[in-house]
Amino acid sequence: MSEPAKKIVLSGLRPTGRVHLGNYWGAVKNWVDLQDQYACRYFVADLHALTTDYADTSAIREATLEAVTDWLSVGLDPEKSVIFVQSQVPQTAELALIFGMITPLGWLERVPTYKEQLQELREKDLGTFGFLGYPVLMTADIALYRGHCVPVGKDQESHLEICREIVRRFNGMYGEVFPEPQALFTATPKVPGLDGRKMSKSYGNTIALSDSAEEIRVKVMSMVTDPKRARRADPGDPDTCNLFPFHLLYSPKEEVAQVDAECRSAARGCVDCKKHLIRNMNAALEPVRAKRAEITARPGYVREVLEEGGEKARAFAAETMKRVADAMKLL
Ligand code: TRP
Ligand code: SF4
Fold this sequence. Notes:
- This protein has helices spanning 21-34, 46-53, 60-73, 91-102, 105-110, 112-120, 129-132, 134-144, 157-174, 213-221, 244-250, 253-264, 270-296, 301-328, and strands at residues 8-13, 39-44, 82-85, 149-152, 182-185.
- The radius of gyration is 22 Å and the shape is elongated.
- The strands form 2 sheets. Strands 1-2-3 form a 3-stranded parallel β-sheet.
- The protein is 54% helix and 7% strand.
- It is built from 14 helices and 5 strands.
- The longest helix has 28 residues, at 301-328.
- It is mostly helical.
- Strand 1 (8-13), helix 1 (21-34) and strand 2 form a beta-alpha-beta unit.
- Residues 10-14, 45, 48, 138, 141-142, 150, 152, 156 line the site of tryptophan.
- Iron/sulfur cluster (SF4) is lined by residues 225-226, 229, 236, 238, 241, 243-244, 259, 263, 268, 270, 273.
């Protein structure tokens, strides 16, 4: 297998079902934008989902297919990028096993998100081997495709750091097999949820990419605006309004400036402001809905894309595992 001329970008997302605007602006949009400049491999991290949700896997298959349908609807292109499902590449487990051999427990226990999540997800028993080994599995994902660049949010920075350490340790012990993956920090604008907290499925405050025009209307109308603006005549402050970040994302620049000025002088009311936003959001999301309808009208299409992507991913992976066996003097 020849190395592609472009640098390899590798990234994954857990299968959380329909993609919401937080997922889109935080990750998937960047994935789409990177497709021309890099050789991209994007996957559904279903094995990673098992590190916390192993006790109930009933939703995982549906969530995987829904997520990929949305990825394709916003422009991830199987002609440009390799799109696949983590568990469809058995070498992921093989390489994770090998990295597990060389990863000191102390490194894993020191990852800041490890202790945090143990606390946060108290209702789940996360005293498992798999949960502790999350970064080992992630290292296998990246190294298997010899990824150079990993687009991540700031929250994943510590994971990537340990991936780099594991790769370095491997290369130091057995020879240079893997590039050291670099974080590719991409712009991630603020996307609050309907209630002003971070948009998240677990808060039930999301707007989905695939929501209908009517759903968008109802959700935006329900949004919290500037809490200090009790009466229509009170001047507002876009900086403390949860609607305004959406104008930044969906309204043209001139209109954003107008919203800002008219809000501060009380020349515009929140209801009109919401209607204005609804028009702009629906104009932007209509093509996504149309593409989604096209995709869902072709039964089996998403599975075909994943089958094809899986085949390519397994071919890369097989080549990498040959190099690993060679370097480690395995037969
Ligand atoms: N950790 C990511 C998440 O929680 C998913 C993921 C798994 C990933 N393996 C990866 C991201 C490798 C980037 C590279 O969504
Ligand atoms: Fe927010 Fe618009 Fe109301 Fe200002 S006018 S507080 S920006 S909804």
